[in-house]
Design brief:
Elements (H helix, E strand, L loop, with lengths): L5 H26 L13 H9 L7 E3 L14 H10 L24 H14 L6 E6 L6 H13 L3 E7 L2 E2 L2 E2 H4 L16 E5 L3 H16 L5 E6 L18 H9 L2 H11 L5 H23 L18 H18 L1
Parallel strand pairs: 1-2, 2-3, 3-7, 6-7
Antiparallel strand pairs: 4-5
Helix pairs in contact: 1-2, 1-9, 1-10, 2-7, 3-10, 4-5
The structure holds thiamine diphosphate and magnesium ion.
Thiamine diphosphate binds next to strand 4.
């Protein structure tokens, strides 16, 4: 196992600050009616960013849920560009071109887990040197897909890292109503694979856990279930009012354990971060987001775009539907 160097921890903090800044900006843009629903990232940054920093972007796949995209910038600027298209409801937002190994956002809970296991199994069959890492929430772990995929991963010995982001809530459902199990990590026993629980506010601990799971997978030792324990610091989405159900004292305690403040003070002590670095990172994050949003707004939208990226080549039925949509578009133009 290799722990992250101080230089890596600094890169991780940059991505964490960028993600939170951009998430806040998107929240405001949603309130102005400029983008669709936003799921804020606050509190999730250390888990998501540190996990992807433990991967090799060239070989390893990431299957996100819906809260992660702003924290995946290590996989390239395409991720933000696509996410802005998605936020505008443009169909191209659901597609990420090769060689970027990140699946599109997934709203239908849990469905990304079997996708990741399938990818991992496929890599084994093709003797490709990589793993698939899948993010899913505590809520998603109640879906049948989680149990089916975890079971199959164990049986196939697939090189997959199943990362359960336990942020204590599934919208307004608290974890104690989500499961009677002692932890989400404990569910690994049912799949015959190792399960580890990690402090998800500790970037280095998450990095270590994912690095170790990845090494196991690459050594042919199969899947690992990692539970990262955090606290959702914001609303579920822009459509939610958490003040109706989140106990204020719990939120206050969680804010004292904010993953960004924690890594920031650690790096400040080492002389690797200061207010100027913070301000410069926030300014760059805003700039990148505004540019990506402008580019997304300028993207042409053809009437048949909704059918793009369904299959690598259109089926006969899709060909007919495409022709109908193009014709309807022309009628509208007239
Ligand atoms: C199959 C399915 N059922 C229900 C929903 C409605 N829904 C959207 S988000 C959500 C909560 C998910 O919680 P969790 O997996 O813990 O992720 P978090 O939002 O906490 O990051 C629910 C129930 C859905 N999107 N898909
Ligand atoms: Mg949750």
């Amino acid at each position: 196992m290799t722990s992250p160097s101080n230089a890596q921890l600094r890169e991780i903090l940059v991505d964490m600050v960028m993600a939170r800044t951009q998430s806040g900006r998107l929240w405001n843009l949603q309130r102005q009616g400029q983008v669709g629903t936003v799921a804020p990232i606050d509190g999730h940054e250390a888990t998501i960013v540190a996990a992807v920093h433990a991967l090799e972007t060239e070989h390893d796949w990431v299957a996100p849920q819906y809260r992660e995209p702003l924290a995946l910038r290590r996989y390239g600027p395409e991720i933000l560009e696509r996410f802005m298209l998605y936020s505008l409801g443009h169909p191209a937002g659901g597609h990420i071109p090769e060689p970027i190994r990140v699946l599109p956002n997934q709203i239908s809970l849990g469905t990304q887990i079997p996708h990741a296991v399938g990818i991992a199994w496929g890599m084994t069959l093709r003797s490709e040197p990589g793993v698939a890492l899948v993010f899913f929430g505590d809520g998603s772990s109640s879906e049948g897909d989680f149990y089916e995929a975890g079971n199959l991963a164990g049986v196939l010995n697939a090189p997959v890292v199943m990362l359960c982001v336990n942020n204590q809530w599934a919208i307004s459902t608290p974890v104690h109503q989500q499961t009677a199990a002692e932890s989400f990590a404990a569910k690994a026993a049912g799949f015959g694979i190792p399960g580890i629980k990690v402090d998800g506010n500790d970037a280095a601990a998450v990095y270590d856990a994912v690095d170790e799971a990845r090494s196991r997978a690459l050594a042919g030792k199969g899947p690992t279930l990692v539970e990262a324990v955090i606290y959702r610091l914001g609303a579920h989405t822009t459509a939610d009012d958490p003040t109706r159900y989140v106990p204020p004292e719990d939120l206050e305690a969680a804010r004292r354990n904010d993953p960004i403040l924690r890594l920031r003070s650690q790096l400040e002590e080492l002389g690797l971060w200061d207010d100027d670095a913070q301000a410069a990172t926030e300014a760059e994050a805003m700039d990148l987001l505004d540019k990506a949003l402008d580019a997304a707004k300028a993207m042409p939208l053809s009437p048949d775009a909704v059918l793009d990226h369904c299959f690598s080549a259109d089926t006969q039925r899709l060909e007919r539907q495409r022709a109908d949509l193009l014709e309807a578009g022309q009628r509208e133009d007239r």
